[in-house]
Amino acid sequence: MIFDPILDIFRGKAVTIPPMDGAIKPNTALDDAEAALETQQPDNLCAYRGGFIYSSANKVFAIEGNANSKEIGSFDEAVTALAVSPSGDIAIGLDNGEIGIMKSGGGTVEIKAPGGLPCPTALAFGASGELYVAEGSAQHRASDWVVDLMSAGSSGSVWRIDLASGNAQSLAQDLAFPYGVLAPKDGRNLVVAESWRHRLVGIGGNGALEPILSKLPGYPARLSPAADGGAWLALFAPRNRLIEFVLLEKAYRTDMISEVPREHWIAPSLSSESSFLEPLQCGGVKTMGIHKPWSPSRSYGLAVKLDAKLQPEASFHSRANGRRHGVTAVAESGGRVFAVSRGGGVILDVSVASKARG
């Protein structure tokens, strides 16, 4: 209502979180899924030559055959974004802001973006060979995402780069950490996952944002196309009331950032229960030796299958008491669907679950 901002001064502001219901009803599909590959710090995942490629820290690997991996690239910084072109070229974004193309025929070409793009979080090739780049923040590196969130960051942007000429065009500015990008297809606008605003938006030709899917129960990460014309969406952490309340309190956040070690902030996480010093107020306390799956949590595992209209039709969970949290990417290739659990250090084969729920 129009008077709510005034009344909030006296009554306090209610903090509400969208429920996980309908197509996003909790289950144990990720915890039940077969581990295709266990690896340290897996992150990006893309379809590649009938299989997959993924990043782990500063390296890129190809998954061949029965989940055997082969290193195909190593860099000086952590890999923060990956994309594969129809011809097999691999676009790579690094944590220092550099973006390059590993050509299918050999060799690497660096892309020079005007003004520098310090935070590549997602990449996608367009139908005409152009490259779309999601820049999460103008102030922070991709690895400093939690700092951007706790600083109420909204300096992200999306760019279109013509690889033939090197020209870069800004498509949208002032985004709250764009973390996923889906290239235009069949008349559909470019789709972006705007993480800190918990939504998917389409970017029109004039830069106007068209809401597609809003009020998500978690923080959306990368998007990838599905074989049936829909898409796959990863959500890397859940929303909960305590964190939402902290995000409303600027003075508290400022003191927390300056005085508390980052790993102990009241903030979303890719995993939890690694230290007894972690915030316990989120509900991750065992009762009679049991960690309740429905308890509030700083971390969670969630992948969502979207239909052709980019609406949820199925989901795959690792709940509060699970270990396969921090899902940062999902990809489909050769009839298989893999998901990255960065918090769990594993790449999961969810093919069977996706067919059962599709």
Please describe what this structure looks like.
- The structure is a single chain.
- The chain is globular and about 60 Å long.
- Strand 18 and strand 19 form a beta hairpin.
- It is built from 6 helices and 24 strands.
- It is mainly beta and 358 residues long.
Keywords for this entry:
358 residues; mainly beta; 4-stranded antiparallel beta sheet; 6 helices; 24 strands; 12% helix; globular
Number of discrete helical segments: 6
Using the alpha-carbon principal axes, give the shape. Answer: globular
Strand order of the largest sheet: 1-24-23-22
In whole angstroms, the N-to-C terminal distance is 39 Å
Mean pLDDT, as a whole number? 89
SSE series: HHEEEEEEEEEEEHEEEEEEEEHHEEEEEH
Query: What is the number of beta strands?
Result: 24
Q: Percent of residues in beta strands? A: 35-45%
The major beta sheet can be summarized as:
4 strands, antiparallel
Lay out the secondary structure.
Elements: H1 4-11, H2 29-32, E1 34-38, E2 42-48, E3 51-56, E4 59-64, E5 68-74, E6 79-84, E7 90-94, E8 99-102, E9 108-111, E10 120-125, E11 131-135, H3 145-150, E12 156-161, E13 168-175, E14 178-182, E15 190-194, E16 199-203, E17 209-213, E18 218-225, E19 231-238, H4 241-248, H5 250-259, E20 301-306, E21 312-318, E22 327-333, E23 336-341, E24 346-349, H6 351-357
Antiparallel strand pairs: 1-24, 2-3, 3-4, 4-5, 6-7, 7-8, 8-9, 10-11, 11-12, 12-13, 14-15, 15-16, 16-17, 18-19, 19-20, 20-21, 22-23, 23-24
